[in-house]
Amino acid sequence: MDDVKTRREFEISNIDKNIKIIQGVEVVLLQEKILILEKSLKEDKKYLKIINSNIKENSNKNPALAAISLIQIKDLRDSISDKSIKLLDLKNEKQNLVNSKVNNLIEEKNFLKSMLLPYSYKNTKIVGDIIISDNPIKPKKKLIVVVAFVTGFILSVFVVFFLQFIGSFKEEDKQ
Questions:
Q1: Are 22 and 97 in contact (CB under 8 A)?
Q2: Under 8 Å CB-to-CB from 23, ≥6 apart: which residues?
Q3: What confidence tens digit (pLDDT) does each residue in 146-158 have?
Q4: Does 157 lie in the same domain as 80?
Q5: Are residues 161 and 77 in the same domain?
Q6: Is the pTM of this model over 0.70?
Q7: DSSP string spanning 71-124?
Q8: Which domain holds residue 29?
Q9: CA distance 71 to 126
């Protein structure tokens, strides 16, 4: 019983470690990734505004620069849209870590703690005396003999009626 208790306590300590790792490392790393992505997204948006203002100024002077600026604008918009999607995915992953994984681990930890409570963890005890009968319970020889006799009688009566039935068919065929 002590082994079970120490194993459960070990499982609880492992769950605590996993919770600390998730909250201390994984969530922090995801938060840093989110901040870096948000910063990069802001820089791309600023750069897009600069290119838009330059294209308005240079579109009349040099059409080749305007075409290159349009290509840059398209690439920046694609980049902004990809980064926005990645940002949403990272925020969703962070939320799942915080809500789902941590809550599941806490629930599992509480369950294991409840199994260690005194009313669910105690040694076995004998409630009453063991009762031994002098007469065997199985096999009941008298009952087996009676059932065999009744079954044999019923089957013999059935065979007699069946033979009589077949005999009457043979007599009808002869006539």
A1: yes
A2: 98, 102
A3: 999 999 999 999 9
A4: no
A5: no
A6: no
A7: HHHHHHHHHHHHHHHHHHHHHHHHHHIIIIIHHHHHHHHHHHHHHTSTTTS---
A8: 2-115
A9: 85
Q: How far apart are CA 22 and CA 94, in angstroms?
A: 10
Rg (CA), the chain: 43
Number of domains in the chain: 2
Q: Is residue 134 part of a domain?
A: no
pLDDT at 150: 97
Is-contact 48 76, C-beta < 8 A? yes
156 shares a domain with 83: no
* Token duo for residue 17: 């470690």
Contacts of residues 104-107 at CB distance under 8 Å and 24 or more positions apart, as own/partner, are 105/15, 105/18, 105/19, 105/22, 106/19
Domain with 94 in it: what CATH number?
Answer: 1.10.287
Long-range contact list for 24-27, CB < 8 A, 24+ apart?
26/97, 27/94, 27/97, 27/98
Q: What does the pLDDT average to over 7-28? A: 82
| Cα gap 136→28, rounded to integer Å | 71
CA distance 153 to 159: 10
DSSP character at residue 99: I
Cα separation of 1 and 140, whole Å? 41
- Chain-centre distance for alpha carbon 79: 36
Find the mean pLDDT for residues 64-70.
Answer: 78
